[in-house]
Amino acid sequence: MSAAADTASAAPADDRRAGAPWALAAPALMLFVGVLVIPLAMTVMLSFHDWGQYKGIEPVFILKNWHEIATDPYYAEMFWRTFRIAILTTFLTAVLGAPEAYILNRMSGRWRSVFLLVILGPLLISVVARTLGWALLFGGNNGLVNKLMMSLGLIRAPIPFMFTETGMVVALAHVMMPFMVLSVWAALQRLDPQIENAALSLGAGPVTIIRRIVMPQIMPGVLSGAIIVFSLSASAFATPAIIGGRRLKVAATLAYDEFLNTLNWPLGAAVATLLLVALVLIVVGSNALIERRYAEVFR
Amino acid sequence: MAYLELDRVAKQFGAQTVVDDFSLAVGKGEFVSFLGPSGCGKTTTLQMIAGFLEPTRGTIRLEGSHLTKVHPAKRGLGIVFQSYALFPHMTAAENVAFGLEMRNVPRDERAERVRSALAMVGLAGYEERYPRRMSGGQQQRVALARALVIRPSVLLLDEPLSNLDAKLREGMQIELRQIQRTLGTTTILVTHDQNEAMSLSDRIVVMSQGRIEQIGTPQDTYERPASAFVSQFLGKTNDFAATIDRTVASARLVAGSWSAPAPAGFNGSVTISLRPERIGFADTGLAAKIITRIFQGNHWLFQCESECGPAIVIRQNDGQPQPAEGDVVRLTWRVEDMSLRGGGA
Predict the structure, then answer these.
(1) In the predicted model, what is the mean pLDDT of residues A173-195?
(2) Does B87 contact A213 at a Cβ distance shorter than 8 Å?
(3) Residues with Cβ within 8 Å of residue B339, at least 6 apart in sequence
């Protein structure tokens, strides 16, 4: 409060200071506008242009692409699949990541750093190499795991993994796990170290402590982790491209194909714009909900 | 029979002994403080009573039955933590009600007991507040209400007042004492603050390096410290090197220019231990020069350089003129106010 009063009294005395924040922010602002805002605006504009097999892109303003996306069930299916995969991935990372973070938080120092490295591992390996690894393990009849299980007589036919939504969810969850674990871990570190003992002394058993005391307090961490995982999964490209390929497209691979294979840039731009708008709405909306619901924990 | 009994309890972490040979019998309704510097094992002992730690050796009994075998959730002890450890996602009333819920107390009775517990700690009307929206003192009261509402057999307080400012702390001390007296709950307080221990407790357990130095009433431990550690830790103390002179007809105890008839049982060099407020200025006695004089409102604090080393003197501010810095004075005291230890200082 006093700092604000200081600036207010100092401003009229020195007018050059008033422009200083803008001048200092200018380089970053110009970069932001140049590499993000302008291309984004151009993409949005592109989505209203016309395109034909022989005439190419025509810079006119029509709603053809948007109309096509809205009416053709092919696109609806693609977007539903995208969000279904993102939701399942988020759910899987939350169910596995939250307990993982809790266990990690209770480990002693040395083990904790070892396992933290294990958890961060997926981020250190190229997403392409990692997804191809999954393909080597489960892909078709020659996948290592499938071969092993079949030779042991556990399964008769190979478990389908490539070109399935299950495969995509599993591979994405593996990539996204660190974001969930770190987010929950940050929430756990804000916990009073004695709080579980307090609940214990009042007669609560281990399950009750987790359910009534720990869970509600780390829920904001789980939810903010979920927002990160959801938005990254919904817009993920490499994993769906390798596991789903052409057979099982999601919004991101669809936009890619429109741009680079069909060369229908305006339609690709419309798909990309819709994905962006949907994601922004979902993320901003759920963030507002979370902040209102957990106001007393955040403040 | 003792209500709560600790019998030669010890705790080791690896090769390090944190608490050793801790034996104590606490009577029903008694208020006992564990007092000592940080790392003396007082909190470890409390955590063993609470059940968060298991003793390496020894037993803890409550009303004659082994407490060590009871799961911490079933011990029925009330604990107030240094950080309060309130549940931040619950209101004050929900915090207090939690222990009753775990005991399946019916809803109506629960509400009534929560209401009266919060009223007892002076928080009537704060039922729906969340901990984050309360001051430190108020959070502390919620923590106390939460611990007391389950009618604990023993109340354990782990430095509960150390996060409050001095004025609030004094008020809470008085209130804590009154509540404890009214309910008659057997209470154990862990503290490093000697004033807190002395003003609250029936008995003080002074601890150092995992061992009990002395168990006694506040007056006992202050007036008759059992060891040099106790006298240093509880308030300020002066140690003067003295000798017993048995060459004269009636043996005398001599410290510089001060002397008195020698007590029995000592010989050669001894140490006189003496509280600063028991020293007076006189015409004869230990010669000393006043180095600094500090005014502290209700009393004056003098730091002197005496014949037997540095000395601290406290005099009541009773309106009498006091010696100034640089004055040479004589220090004297009554024989019954000092305690003697064998050996040099």
Answers:
(1) 93
(2) yes
(3) B224, B225, B231, B272, B273, B274
Interface contact flag, B146 A192, Cβ < 8 Å: no
Domain regions of chain B by residue span: 4-231, 236-341
Mean pLDDT of B315-326: 88
Strand pairing partners for B241?
A: B271
Counting residues of chain B whose pLDDT is more than 90, the rounded percentage is 63
Shortest CA distance from A193: residue in chain B = B85
CB proximity under 8 Å: A 173-202 to B: 192-195, 197-202
Residue A11 has what pLDDT?
46
Is residue B230 within 8 A of residue B214, CB to CB? The reply is yes
- Mean residue pLDDT of chain B comes to 91
Q: Which of residues 198-227 of A touch B (CB under 8 A)?
A: 198-205, 208, 212-213, 216-217
Instruction: Inspect the interface and report whether the beta carbons of B87 and A198 lie closer than 8 Å.
Output: yes
Q: Would the CB atoms of B150 and A192 count as touching at under 8 Å?
A: no
CATH for the B4-231 domain, from 3.30.70.260, 3.40.50.300, 3.40.50.150, 3.30.420.40: 3.40.50.300
Confidence of residue A296 (pLDDT cuts 50, 70, 90): low
Helices (H), chain A: 2-10, 16-32, 38-46, 64-71, 73-106, 109-124, 127-138, 144-151, 165-189, 195-201, 206-208, 215-234, 238-239, 251-257, 265-293, 295-298
ipTM reported for the complex surpasses 0.90 = no
Q: What is the pLDDT of residues A51-91, one digit of tens each?
A: 888 888 888 899 999 999 999 999 999 999 999 999 999 99
pLDDT of res. B78 = 95
Contacts 24+ apart (CB under 8 A), B20-23: B20/B210, B20/B211, B21/B58, B21/B211, B21/B212, B22/B58, B22/B211, B22/B212, B23/B58, B23/B212
Which residue reads 């502390």 in tokens?
A: B140
B86 vs A contacts (CB less than 8 Å): 192, 198
